[in-house]
Amino acid sequence: MKKNGFVEGAVIAYIAIVITKILGAFYNIPFYGIIGDRGSIIYSFAYNIYVLFLDISTSGIPIAISIVLSEYATKGMYKSKEKAYKLGMRIVVGVSLAAFAILMIFAEGIAGFYISDMTDGVTVNEVAMAIRVVSVCLLIVPFLSMKRGYLQGHKCLGASSTSQVIEQIVRIVFVLGGASVVIYAFSLGTTVGACVALFGTSVGAGAALVYLMIKSRNSKELFLCEVEEKEDSTKNILKKIATYCVSIVLVSVSTSLYSIVDMKLLLVGLQNIGFSAYETQSITSIASTWIPKICMIVVALSMGLTNSIAPHMAESFSQGKMKEVSFKLNQGIGTILVVSVPMATGIALLSEPVYNLFYGESQHGGNILMLAIILNVIASVVAVVSMAMQSIDCGKQVIIFTLVGIVINACLDLPLIYLFNNIGIPAYLGATAASIVGELSTLTLLLISLYKKHKIGYTPSLKILLKIIIPVGAMAGVVLLLKYFWPVIEDRGLMLVVQMGVFALIGAVVYGVLAYAFGAVTDVMGKDKINGLLRKLHLKK
Fold it and tell me: What angle is formed at CA 299 by the lines to CA 396 and CA 27, rounded to 5 degrees?
């Protein structure tokens, strides 16, 4: 285990998250087939509720701890650093126990919030059972999240990222194996199969926690620093944690709130315009759970950047190096533009076959994916900018602007659902469109605030955006030509996999060559790193 620099840490985190998200996306192909439509609806409702409570109980404090630890480590304050970690652990344990108790006690009421008076489709009892099963994970994940936050605060991204891969692999093996056994071997039905799959989240988290405990025990010297004569007071430490934590929790929860608001209003709106209860539940499940799993391939980059950017931004800010803060922020935004925009464009152009590849034919899946992938790129930029602002003591603004986006989304959901239905656009796309408007509003306010308060400009990011327009356009043209000369295969099978792989490879090569020629790749990664990589690949002397 070793400490990693900003770019190295971001790359390590990105590679790990890409691996876990690709595994997570592709394992859904057999998993969806095992639990079927009914099981997927139960899984979707329970999992989204769990994610909300997980965000509330664990998402904010670990990242806040990583920022606080980085500050104390930079100043050589070892006792204060360790004290902050212990205080954070106590808070997380208390909040997580409370969240677990709420889900166990009020599972039926929470399930009823979704199902309401629907007479067909899945039942309240089925969803309630699934919620209680997945709530067990809240007794394990907090410890795992805190350990990762501790390592991130010391810039040890390697072990933290490896644990994510271990967690995902163990989870997938348990989910696929467990669901198959209970459904096919014991004939216990898809409801039990979905519950076993949800319990796999706990098993994977447990395996990752054991790994990190072993690695940390063998690398204690990395966490040592100069011991100050007097440690910071408990009050000051708690104030620091709370300052970062509140805004980070809200930003993390905002993603779940967007999903939950959209789920509820989709259920209401689609029923009001004549969709059957089962079709309404199915569309809502697709939009809130299964489409995001495909989009995670694109979102993985921003997740890696947010994990890496927080401690580095906090360190630069604490030293008064605002030029470094500006450079790292623009580097983060530029990386998303260079990597995520072309990926999202390709997925949007191939949305129907991509959805078919993962989950089979669907009347609605391709349409939802096409718009959702755009939303996820915008949300990725919002996530990186929000984390940067929280790392430089702008948490209050982040809270306000995030709430503005959520309110705008909630206010527009039903009106856009009804509007789209009246003008001939699939009604369910109204919820995604509302989320796009909400995220764009938040992003605009965040960027304006950063410029006014810290004079951070975005010229480097704008230059990168201009440099990728032609490469992205060329890639899109090539993909459309490929679709014309090699029509998309309708049957879900090996040939569709091969076809999508060929399209993706050719599109990536066209984009990559042009993006390098226009200087977009060099602007993000740096000329020396790019040349070094090309020499390793024997593409340059």
Answer: 135
Render pLDDT for 384-408 as a digit per residue (tens, 0 to 9): 888 788 777 777 788 888 889 989 9
Stretch 291-309: mean pLDDT: 70
Q: For 436-478, how does the pLDDT look when each residue is reduced to its tens digit (9 = 90+)?
A: 999 999 999 999 988 888 788 888 889 999 999 999 999 999 9
**Which among 162, 148, 165, 159 is positioned nearest to 61, based on CA atoms?**
148
Question: What gap in Å lies between CA 121 and CA 118, rounded to an integer?
Answer: 7
Contact 541, 535 (CB under 8 A): yes
Q: Following DSSP, what letter does each residue of 94-162 receive, concatenated? A: HHHHHHHHHHHHSHHHHHHHHHTT--SSS-HHHHHHHHHHHHGGGGTHHHHHHHHHHHHHTT-HHHHHH
Torsion of CA 379, 380, 384, 385, to 10 degrees: -40
CA–CA dist 344, 487 (Å, integer): 21
Per DSSP, 221 falls in state G
Cβ(54)–Cβ(141) below 8 Å: yes
Residues contacting residue 453 through CB under 8 Å, at least 6 positions apart: 394, 397
| pLDDT tens profile 407-431 | 999 899 999 999 999 999 999 999 9
Q: pLDDT band at 344, cuts 50/70/90?
A: very high
Encode 264-311 in three state secondary structure: HHHHHHHHHCCCCHHHHHHHHHHHHHHHHHHHHHHHHHHHHHHHHHHH
CA-wise closest residue to 198 among 280, 121, 278, 132: 132
How far is 218 from 147, CA to CA, in rounded Å? 14
**Residue 8, pLDDT above cutoff 80:** no
